[in-house]
Amino acid sequence: MKHLVQKQLAQSIATLQAVLADENISDTLVSIAKLTAEAMQSGHKLLVAGNGGSAADAQHLVAEFVVRLTVNRPALRAIALTTDTSILTAAGNDYGFDHLFSRQLEALAQPGDVFLAISTSGNSKNILRAITQAKLIGIPTIGFTGAGGGKMRPLCDYSIVVSSDITQNIQESHLALEHIFCMLVERFAFGHDLDHKHQILSE
């Protein structure tokens, strides 16, 4: 059992090291953070969707934007499309599971917003349909994926692809990158003065 613990930790570290070595990921993260900060500063918002563990990521990331990451600053506009059970069940029942997020984008997204889609495989049908809907509205699309990027990769304006085929390791890397994404958006929106603020440990 101890060997399993060490093996899994080594696997997680190896995946993160591959992410660290991929300069395209770092460059893309900076680009999407700047894009998102500019959208928020102009009164627009970030919309985020994902399935399963990636749905939890969507909610987690949005909480960091709306509340805070590590320092006090003004709230940032972001919405997770994974949280309203009445909308999710009605859309699933009336239109089908593939329409869960596209229907919400049709209702909530406006030109100037940004859509972030999270899928470890890059092939979730409801995510693919949501990206198509976002493109119809004319808003930039960002994809966080793994496993080569799947069908999402060519559809998204910006793609961050974790070089792994193992779901849990992709998700672990996504979470680390999502935290950094929020931190970068904060710096673009409020300046590097945040670096000198007291870091708050959330309860």
UniProtKB/TrEMBL annotation:
Single GO cellular component term: cytoplasm
Reactions this protein catalyses: 2 D-sedoheptulose 7-phosphate = D-glycero-alpha-D-manno-heptose 7-phosphate + D-glycero-beta-D-manno-heptose 7-phosphate
Origin superkingdom: Bacteria
Gene3D superfamilies given in the database record: Glucose-6-phosphate isomerase like protein, domain 1
Residue ranges of every copy of the SIS domain listed in the record: 36-190
Metabolic or biological pathway: Carbohydrate biosynthesis; D-glycero-D-manno-heptose 7-phosphate biosynthesis; D-glycero-alpha-D-manno-heptose 7-phosphate and D-glycero-beta-D-manno-heptose 7-phosphate from sedoheptulose 7-phosphate: step 1/1
GO molecular function, one term: D-sedoheptulose 7-phosphate isomerase activity
Keyword Zinc listed: yes
Binding site for Zn(2+): H60, E64, Q171, H179
Pfam families the UniProt entry points to: SIS_2
Subcellular location: Cytoplasm
CDD domains according to UniProt: SIS_GmhA
Cofactor or coenzyme needed: Zn(2+)
Function (record text): Catalyzes the isomerization of sedoheptulose 7-phosphate in D-glycero-D-manno-heptose 7-phosphate.
Miscellaneous note of the record: The reaction produces a racemic mixture of D-glycero-alpha-D-manno-heptose 7-phosphate and D-glycero-beta-D-manno-heptose 7-phosphate.
Protein name: Phosphoheptose isomerase
Gene: gmhA
